[in-house]
Amino acid sequence: MTATMDKKELTQNLKKYFGFDSFKGLQEQVICNLIEGHDTFVLMPTGGGKSLCYQLPALMMEGTAIVLSPLIALMKNQVDAVRQVSEDDGIAHYLNSSLSRQQVEEAKKDIQDGRTKLLYVAPESLTKEETKDFLRGIKISFYAIDEAHCISEWGHDFRPEYRRIRPLINEIGRAPIIALTATATNKVRRDIKKNLGILRATDYVSSFNRPNLYYAVRPKTKDIDKDIIRYILQNPHKSGIIYCLSRKKVEQLAEILQANNINARAYHAGMETAERNQTQDDFIMERLDVIVATIAFGMGIDKPDVRFVIHYDIPKSLEGYYQETGRAGRDGGEGACIAFYSPKDLDKLRKFMEGKPVSEQDIGNQLLAETRAYAETSVCRRKMLLHYFGEEYNQDNCHHCDNCARPHDSIEGSHDLVMVMETILAVKEKFKVDHIIDIVTGQETEEVISHCHEQLKSFNRGSSHDRPYWSALIRQAMLAGYIEKEVENYGLLRITKKGKAYLQEPSIFFFLPNNEFEDYEPEPEEEAGALDETLMKMLLKLRRQRAQELGIPPYVIFQENSLSAMASTYLVTIDELQNMPGVGAGKAARYGKEFCQLIAKYCEENEIERPLDLRIRTVASRSKNKISIIEKIDRKLMLDDIADSMMIDMDELLDEMEAIVSSGTKLDINYYLDEVMDEDYMLDIYDYFHDESQTDDLKTAMKELGPDYEERDIRLVRLKFMSEIGN
């Protein structure tokens, strides 16, 4: 292909291979630049059509394009997509550890025969001498570095092996390089180009604005699972991704969603490759509505109609957040991006960094500070995101984020802004945000004292306001262009030319206070939490009647806290009942039918509409501890030995056993009681619970039985009684 390539021919090939009549955004310029043999850097948000920027030139140029890609699942997805544009499956291949020796040889033959135009390779594979020797023997049209942000330590998905790409390319053979990423700040862009040795590459940077995406941050409370379930049930049959930080939470949440009849499945790197691939394929083919995943899911996933992306945990960086939310609404349709935020999550993320090199921790903490600022701001979220990536958004209201939908009252802060900027200049522009706030709020920290900054005239002058006030003011002064943060220099604050002009002639400066997330408690919901006293009396009466029929104490059937939950939530099925506190599957099956029937009839007669919240099912705990305890008691191991083997004390073991029995599972501990307890002594306690007591309360039992009976012995016999009589 020559430098004087016909644009008409380019458009014809676009139509021939991909069925499009015209290019999108900067695609045509990128492709022409690459075909003409120039190094190219492409920053194009998710959904902008990055893949076509290297796929089309590869199909048109002589030789094979080497595409360096970070994930095996991504390679498979991309190869499958390219094969759809040709009748020859040999047009695209990948080489990675998932292939058998025979599959590798078949791929190499297609490449040598000139059939393969795109070869996807992991950077690790390039280090193998066998791979390098093979690639030296073929005509390489160009190298494409996909997800190029992985190169930079400042990128959200840094991978050390990516920084070795340039030396490996030099060993194999030079050819033009195209680096592509969906998210990169100015710092990351420079880092990528420097590391790849393409500082003179032509840059193509698309706008980061995705007008169809709605951004919102919600407080993360104990009801987060309910909030998510409610949202999904109110948006039925829409494709969505929920991101969690840990594999454990991914599995737990997927199970809870499934229990609530949501077509969801888990996805994380700890799963078998075949299972992960199947889950990904089912999501793309619409056999699955919701994926609950770690960030291992999503890179390069070609699904245009994802309608929501939910972050269960706030991400480690805004780059990561932007890329993950960018998987919503790639077809231009609606896309809701909802993040749940608690300041405690940032503390956890900081703990994850402990033990890492100091420089890495410093980078991580700077990225977390940006994330916190985004989460807590009451400024337009679109404006905040675009500013982070070096793009200005000049509209006052985007009409498509939670802050713009519910604007706050602004504060006039020109006097405080001048004080902050004068403080930054007084410390020679060599300190970060926290240090400046320490000075103006009068904090005598070690760093403030060591630099004699307590002697500055601004020291303690702003103590009438809290830290969030000053944080919001400084952040919005940055948005206004008065202050800037030197990302490459540890986040030091400096005053811009515009800021210095403002200091000469200060004017009105309005800013918005931050949203408050500290110690957030949800408003009580009367529908969900109010005890129906009439229903409670009916349930108590039914329990008393059943207890008399069976000749057992009423509390053995259901404890009062269980009845209170029933009278507050109007549950009407055994499935719902078994998730109530102190119930479980066994007890629900044994006693629940009449109680559910009573509640259903009561709701019908009184025209009570059960709120959506209350039908949300939880998943009963099936921890390894509980399973292990049941198995060991079945094998008649002594309880002391069980506690020792689990590295817990006897009281903790009894706590676990009580939870097991209260949920309806029977534990036979007679073998243990026979060894450690006198029979008459044991029968005295047993008879108390069977004949005398109207409650299973431990303190009441200790008071009634007297000082001759040990608390632990009472607990053990109560376990025997509840297990035999209640279950």
Notes on the protein architecture:
It is a single chain. By secondary structure, the protein is of the alpha/beta class. The protein folds into five domains: 7-205, P-loop containing nucleotide triphosphate hydrolases (Rossmann fold), CATH 3.40.50.300; 213-405, P-loop containing nucleotide triphosphate hydrolases (Rossmann fold); 411-511, Orthogonal Bundle (Arc Repressor Mutant, subunit A), CATH 1.10.10; 526-615, HRDC domain (DNA polymerase, domain 1, Orthogonal Bundle), CATH 1.10.150.80; 624-726, ATP-dependent DNA helicase RecQ (Arc Repressor Mutant, subunit A), CATH 1.10.10.1390. It is built from 35 helices and 17 strands. β10 (264-267), α12 (273-284) and β11 (290-293) form a beta-alpha-beta unit. The longest helix has 22 residues, at 584-605.
- CATH superfamily of the largest domain, by name, is P-loop containing nucleotide triphosphate hydrolases
Give the N-terminus to C-terminus distance in angstroms.
79 Å
Strand order of the largest sheet: 3-4-2-5-6-1-7
DSSP, total strands = 17
Q: How large is the count of helical segments?
A: 35
Q: What is the CATH architecture annotation of the largest domain? A: 3-Layer(aba) Sandwich
Form type: globular
